[in-house]
Design brief:
By secondary structure, the protein is mainly alpha-helical. It contains three helices and two strands; from the N terminus they run αββαα. About 15% of the residues are buried. Bound molecules: zinc ion.
């Protein structure tokens, strides 16, 4: 019984990430449409990306606000709403990987500098 329950939870979890991804895609399209219009000062209604099945909230953002969220890898969220733990973990992993690549790059550069100085 407990096993069945656990499996059900994980399916719900996956659905939530799917909704988050779908809404993020919709928001991206709204952003593109907004970008193509002459007036970029006004606010647009973006969908909350928390992915909860009962959530249909919209968040009013200017294109600039949305772009800065999107570019920094953050989600559009209504006040008090959060991403699922799975989605948060996924984003943290992506951040960690980016940091690791950056660290590796700097290490290689440091090695090159040391070599250059040695000659
Ligand atoms: Zn929400």
């Amino acid at each position: 019984m407990a096993r069945t329950h656990a499996r059900k939870e994980s399916v719900v979890g996956r659905k939530r990430e799917f909704k988050t991804a779908a809404l993020a895609e919709v928001n991206r399209h709204i952003g593109e449409v907004a970008q193509g219009l002459p007036s970029q000062a006004e606010e647009w209604e973006f969908f909350c990306e928390c992915g909860r099945p009962d959530c249909s909230d919209v968040v009013r953002l200017t294109l600039e606000e949305y772009s800065s969220l999107h570019d920094s890898g953050q989600a559009v969220l209504a006040p008090g709403h959060n991403l699922s733990q799975v989605e948060r973990a996924r984003r943290l992993n992506a951040d960690a990987e980016a940091l690791q690549r950056q660290a590796q790059h700097q290490l290689e550069r440091a090695h090159r500098n040391m070599r250059d100085r040695g000659t």
